[in-house]
Amino acid sequence: MSRVTIKDIASKLGVSAATVSNALNGKAGVGKARRKNIMEIASQMGYQPNAFARNLVNQQSYAIGLIVSSISDPFYPELARGVQEKASELGYCMMLFNTNHSIKVEQNSIETLNARGVDGIILATVLQDDPNIALLEKLRIPFVLVNRLLLDPGIASSIDSVVLDNYRGGYESARHLLRMGHTRITIIAGNMKASTAILRTRGARDAMQVYGISEERYDVVDCGYVMETAYRVAKEKLKEKNIPSAFLCQGDNMALGVREAVCEAGMTIPGDIALLGFDDIEFSSVAGIELTTVSHRQYQMGSTGTELLVDKIASERQAGVTKNIVLEPELIVRKSCGFGVKGYIMP
Amino acid sequence: MSRVTIKDIASKLGVSAATVSNALNGKAGVGKARRKNIMEIASQMGYQPNAFARNLVNQQSYAIGLIVSSISDPFYPELARGVQEKASELGYCMMLFNTNHSIKVEQNSIETLNARGVDGIILATVLQDDPNIALLEKLRIPFVLVNRLLLDPGIASSIDSVVLDNYRGGYESARHLLRMGHTRITIIAGNMKASTAILRTRGARDAMQVYGISEERYDVVDCGYVMETAYRVAKEKLKEKNIPSAFLCQGDNMALGVREAVCEAGMTIPGDIALLGFDDIEFSSVAGIELTTVSHRQYQMGSTGTELLVDKIASERQAGVTKNIVLEPELIVRKSCGFGVKGYIMP
DNA sequence: TTGAATAGATTAAACGATAAAGTAATCCAA
DNA sequence: TTGGATTACTTTATCGTTTAATCTATTCAA
């Protein structure tokens, strides 16, 4: 509750509220001496502009929303930090929402955010058939997609986004396993409605083809990016007669789930089974885990996404060119894939 | 930008704006038929109340702020999720701020939050000599402390809080090591200005005394709750001639730092060195890590803290009794402390 | 000396809702 | 049938800013 208002200052100095407003906002039409005087009195009285009134007259809140599936998933905190810090830098606040992987909750979040008049939304959870894109467009609220995007070029071409080159990440990670001689690979995929999982899988498939592995010789299981599911799937896989020699996981958290199953089955990594992750969460590098994985630039995604959004908010009335930013992934070789099935690495 | 306003509805139906407002808000003084009619037209026209105008007239934003040191620290995401979900349930939004362990950034965050007119703040980062408590009180903004609190009973008795019984956690964890026969213990402490670290250390010291370990026989190092620092400290410790047989860490992330140092020194856990953590972050349970630790109730802390805060906001004008909630910790025995130095556990 | 331009201010409207006060019609009891 | 209570509204004020429109001296060129 900011007590002192612009009127208090005005009446104290015997001037009009408009003059005080103009002085404080550095606008023309106020004499030098008076301006200085007003500024002094204002700070002396501890004046704090009332955000509600400002928001009302400008129809702007200087707040943005960030929607993630769950901040507890170790993939998202760095992204959120990127958004928050860049937002603060640009004078915005960040409101955080978790969808818990639910389209319905995603919808509620968007509606709430809109009802509160945020200036824009960063959506990290979009799916291919996501009805909420239409919602966002109907609400005419600026938004950018980060992490995941829409693959339909017709739609995608008009939506700002910041994503990793997931195809390449998928390709390179599969290639790494293939070069090490693995031919029985199970792909532990993320949510196959998410562009990330689709593209990583597509990249992996292409790599398989290049290395002459036909479709019957590997399989892809949608584990929805949840660790628990990956664990259960791996558990089952390892009971079959012809178990895979490598698990290609599309998320480090899922890789950890698989790792758990492998360990429980009494097998070792990379001795019996090779394991490859994706995202390079902080935890993947700890001794004894040392997951070979693909780096992801969560912080940068959040930070750049925020820049795009704020740009978009500022230039709302102008024509605005769509920006699609693609970040480059990097294969990070640690120990979870060992030194290859036959002890050497193919070219 | 919500286009249609209360006035549009009013003029369309030939009634006054006040009647529309009353009808929509379920207030008395509107005839049955008219009320129904207004509601229908409103939803038909896609009316969305303008939050800015509402905020201005009620001087309330239905938003709260959460201040953590860094959302990337695996301790905080669950807490944030607890806050966000409870907040949503109660009709509030959560704005997230990271302080990066800086008092100055903490101050900025509070001031920003205040300037934006949030209804209250949840502070998870308070230190004993934190000048920002005075700031919060000066601003007369409702707040609650979670995770950490102030130990000075004079101040603490008037501030709502939700914390773990850190003394007990510290005591039990030390006792566990002592029962296993460890007598050379290094305590990797958190930030010693945080009540968590102070109380955990106090608990540990008391346990030491009960088990007859004098002060010269163990040491306490402030690692500020950062993994990297813990890693470096452990690295140094392991170079000394008389290395500890156990590290008692006040945070799982720091335990992982220590673990790294131990591994790099070519030693094993728990074979050569016992390791005990605190917080039970999700990662601590994975195969091969299996950190013995103390459970912390991050989600509940966030959720309950939010309830207290919203209570406090609602009853702001009333006398309001201070609530201090203490959650119980639980020792979670996994493998990182092995089976005791002499192969047995003391009573 | 006149008229236009300009600096420095004021007034009033607007933003979109809510809350308080006022009014006209209806109802019911005495 | 009178008058108090109730109901269903409307009018007006207010929240704290910003901003467009207006006003009044003063300056200055012609």
UniProtKB/TrEMBL annotation, chains A, B:
Record InterPro entries: HTH_LacI, Lambda_DNA-bd_dom_sf, Peripla_BP/Lac1_sug-bd_dom, Peripla_BP_I
Domain HTH lacI-type: 4-58
Keywords on record: DNA-binding, Transcription, Transcription regulation
Top-level taxon of origin: Bacteria
Sample GO molecular function, one term: transcription cis-regulatory region binding
Protein's UniProt name: Transcriptional regulator, LacI family
Organism listed in the record: Desulfocicer vacuolatum DSM 3385
